[in-house]
Amino acid sequence: MESHAIVSDDSELLVLVDSNDEEVGYADKKSCHDGDGILHRAFSLFVFNDAGEVLMQQRAPQKRLWPGYWSNSCCSHPREGEELFEAVIRRSEQELGFRVTPNFLYKFEYQARFENQGSEHELCSVFAANYSGAVNVNRTEIQDWHWIAPRALDQDLLVNPHRYTPWFKMEWQRINTEFQDQLG
Q1: Which residues are catalytic?
Q2: % of the chain exceeding 90 in pLDDT
Q3: Closest by CA position to 126, among listed 80, 70, 172
Q4: End-to-end CA distance of the chain
């Protein structure tokens, strides 16, 4: 059963950080993504099933940044006063309809602009998790989804790189080269 609950809005306070991941304040989500963006804490989650496939989501058309693009299983931000692991678990439940036990892989900083709509400027922690049950997506966040074998995903990235979010492409490349032994 799919959900249509609104789980995020432009007024929620995000955690501003420096390049060492030290908190330096808070700002609303809209301000964090205006212009070139303000560096803030974020996360990306990659969910793998028992067959070794990764769960991909197509971002909802109403998303401000990269609407309709394909990306990793779930990505978002911890809110003011929220621990990162708690945020990953909260968003997996809100967006995908199931709870995960996240495994931290690595952290990186990036900045990417989307047309004239704004930018991501994030210190992003990347997590992996295993799950093979039912997926119940939240349609306010996700337009479409599917499980895909890593080899098929690699091939589609070569042929259709324009279909994917910039952070996903960076993360997937590093996961493929450094973390394959920790997945599945």
Answers
A1: 75, 122
A2: 86
A3: 172
A4: 26
pTM across the whole model: 0.93
Name the DSSP class of 161: G
Q: pLDDT tens for residues 35-81?
A: 999 999 999 999 999 999 999 999 999 999 999 999 999 999 998 88
Residue among 2, 153, 178 at smallest CA distance from 72? 153
State the angle between helix axes of 166-178 and 150-159 in degrees (0 to 180), rounded to the nearest 10: 130
Look-up of token digits 């249509």: 4
At which residue do the structure tokens 């967006």 appear? 95
Residue 6 corresponds to which tokens in the numbers above? 């609104």
Helix (H, G, I), strand (E, B) or coil at 91: helix
Evaluate whether 77 touches 29 at the Cβ level (below 8 Å): yes
- 13 burial via Cβ count (<10 Å: 0-12, 13-18, 19+): middle
Q: Which residues contact 93 (CB under 8 A, 6 or more apart)?
A: 99
In eight-state DSSP terms, residue 172 is H
- Hey, which bits of 61-181 come out as E strands? 70-71, 74-76, 103-114, 118-130, 142-148
The DSSP 8-state label assigned to residue 35 in this structure reads T
